[in-house]
Design brief:
This protein has 440 residues and is mostly helical. It is built from 18 helices and no strands. It has a single domain, classed as Hydantoin permease (Orthogonal Bundle).
Length: 440
């Protein structure tokens, strides 16, 4: 049996953890969710949810993961000392499996657009019609989904040091460089300030229970909390690293990238008279049309979809790692085989989501497509419930000695964190979740 791997450096861990957080949640989902829910009010609620609820739970996952030094199921079994808390790990694994099954569909869309942007296939296209044609074409969406998953598996099969950390070390810096380049270009468009006002000047009429729930769900989705991804990554972390600083760094990076995504997208949307309420198709319909109308737009469009691919892959890697590490438990020599087997299973489970905009489009679950249903049960149900379970476990099951030794922080700050995970975070999750259920 191989010895359990560890990150080679603090920066490697932070980049990988930030990569898990900074994915489609920040770049694809955050802009369209903000666009559909009033812009600035959603942004403010998202930031508050991230810092007051997401960050404490993220830190709780770090504490549990590093304390356990194993896959999530084994860690929870060991730390609960005979109490039946391993179900949280299994729930996180199942949620990650489902998320990656539909997440990889969007990853496939990005690959399709990237290839077209490189070959000139997007020049002068009817982007609304093109997007609908792509997502409705069963052959294209399945091939693209399989290709995206193959890239993800190829990275994860190589392990922490040789695969995940190495990929994160070059993808994340490039992601930041590309983002800044695109933000500068977007802000130089005439009329761009209207998009900035939409993003940062509150319209309080959008302050509703639904908006609060969606912002909280976005905070969980974009931070990857509630599915044990961060617990899994922290299990590979050396004991001398400071968890509090790492959690704060990841949370701030996530907020910054989400805001940068808004700064890239909304000024361009308003400058060229497009609608910010386009929904999930915002980056596939509106943005290509915008880039098509500006000088050197073809180049910037290629850069944007490369950026999207990097961000999507870093999150997909984290989700597959949860499944693989739990699937092999302590048998690390089976990683390569397990990565390809689980990748194939995820692809099969994702086929209905991939086809839900085409030949399975008539099938509706709770008023939405199969893709929408998979998103519903994970980001709005499984992730909040998983986050609730993690906060209760860290607040009540883990001993004071366990948390104090892992956090190694000022006693006052430790008490504040304990209060947040014991009372504030659980109460907020329960109230908002119940409000959403009543409103269904």
């Amino acid at each position: 049996m191989k010895e359990r791997e560890q990150w080679t450096s603090k920066i490697g861990f932070i980049l990988a953890a930030a990569g898990s957080a900074i994915g489609l949640g920040a770049i694809w989902k955050f802009p369209y969710m903000a666009g559909m829910n009033g812009g600035s009010v959603f942004v403010l609620l998202f930031i508050v949810s991230t810092l007051l609820i997401g960050l404490p739970i993220l830190l709780a996952e770090f504490v549990i993961g590093r304390r356990g030094q194993a896959d999530v199921v084994t860690s929870l079994e060991k730390l609960s000392k005979g109490k039946k808390w391993n179900w949280v790990g299994w729930m996180g694994l199942i949620a990650s499996f489902i998320i990656l099954s539909f997440y990889s569909v969007v990853g496939g869309w990005i690959l399709s657009y990237l290839i077209r942007s490189i070959t000139g296939g997007l020049s002068g296209a009817d982007f609304g019609g093109l997007f609908n044609d792509i997502i409705a074409d069963p052959m294209e969406v399945l091939i693209a989904q399989a290709a995206f998953l193959a890239i993800t598996v190829w990275i994860v099969q190589s392990g922490i040091k040789g695969g995940i950390e190495r990929a994160s070390r070059w993808m994340m810096p490039l992601l930041f460089i590309f983002f800044i380049l695109l933000a500068v270009r977007s802000l130089t468009l005439e009329g761009a300030m209207e998009g900035i006002r939409f993003l940062f000047v509150p319209d309080w009429s959008y302050l509703t229970g639904k908006t609060v729930l969606l912002a909280l769900g976005q905070a969980f989705f974009s931070l990857s909390v509630g599915v044990t991804a961060m617990m899994t990554y922290a299990s590979y972390l050396q004991k001398e690293e400071r968890l509090g600083q790492s959690a704060l760094n990841v949370s701030i990076l996530n907020i910054v990238i989400s805001l940068l995504a808004g700064i890239v997208i909304f000024p361009a949307v308003f400058a060229l008279g497009q609608s910010p309420t386009e929904g999930p198709g915002l980056i596939f319909v509106v943005l290509p049309a915008i880039f098509n109308e500006i000088p050197f737009g073809g180049f910037f469009l290629i850069v944007f979809f490369i950026l999207m691919l990097f961000a999507t892959l870093t999150s997909a890697i984290a989700m597959l790692e949860i499944v693989v590490s739990t699937g092999i438990r302590q048998k690390h020599n089976q990683r390569k085989k397990a990565a390809w087997i689980f990748g194939a299973l995820i692809f099969l489970v994702g086929i209905p989501s991939a086809l839900s905009f085409g030949i399975l489009g008539d099938i509706k679950l709770f008023g939405g497509t199969i893709f929408d249903f998979a998103d519903l049960i994970t980001s709005r149900i499984a992730m909040p419930l998983g986050a609730l379970a993690v906060s209760i476990f860290a607040g009540y099951v883990l001993s004071q000695k366990d948390t104090a030794e892992e956090l190694n922080m000022n006693p006052t700050i430790h008490r504040i964190w304990k209060t947040l995970v014991r009372y504030i975070a659980p109460a907020a999750i329960v109230i908002i979740f119940v409000t959403w259920v009543i409103g269904l």
